[in-house]
Amino acid sequence: MPTVKQARQGSWGSAIMFICLLVFQLVVLLGARTLYAQEVDFSEVEQNWKVCSGCHGVKAEGGRGFPALNYLDEDFIVEALRDYRNGTYRGDMSGIMFVQMGLLKPENFELMAKYIKEISKNE
Ligand code: HEC
Questions:
Q1: How far, in whole angstroms, is CA 94 from its chain's centroid?
Q2: Burial level of 65, CB count in 10 A (0-12/13-18/19+)?
């Protein structure tokens, strides 16, 4: 049988444990939220995509003779955008993309590629 003193120590112990766990959870939660927020902050390219989606489809599924982008790798998309930016022909209709590149900043090419992967995931 534990003495009264021992029992009290025991409950203090679990109270402290409980508080530690709470703090730990909070830290993990906040940390995860920051990471998550960083990953999905697409605000810079969301506006651009409204124009792109007119041809490539809302979920990059393509349509009306315009290519789908949903199956492309991120690296491939970035490379394509860089080529179009430089005026390099990749296909018969590259001229259309040369014009589009006036609206998208080169520093956002990678973010755009990530965004395209993200939106084409949610079928
Ligand atoms: C007016 C229609 C139109 C708009 C708007 C448009 N695109 Fe395109 N896109 C095309 C066409 C057409 C091609 C094929 C070009 C070629 O022949 O090289 C293409 C090709 C691409 C490719 C390469 C696809 C492949 O399979 O190689 C990527 C990546 C791309 N577009 C991204 C974008 C992004 C990002 C935007 C918005 C900033 C955008 N496009 C806006 C018509 C459009």
A1: 27
A2: exposed
Give the count of alpha carbons within 13 A of 109, CB side only: 17
Q: Are residues 28 and 49 in the same domain?
A: no
Q: Are residues 51 and 17 both part of a single domain?
A: no
> Are residues 21 and 79 located together in one domain of the fold?
no
Number of structural domains, the chain? 2
Ligand 1 binding residues, C-beta < 6 A: 48, 51-52, 54-56, 66-67, 69, 72, 77, 80-81, 90-94, 96-97, 100, 103-104, 112
Pocket probe mutation, ligand 1, options 92, 96, 104, max atoms within 8 Å of Cβ: 96
- The pLDDT tens digits of the residues spanning 109-120 come to 999 999 999 999
> 33-47, 74-88, 104-118: which has the minimum mean pLDDT?
33-47
pLDDT in tens, 47-69: 999 999 999 999 999 988 999 99
**Nearest atom in ligand 1 to 116's CA:** 35
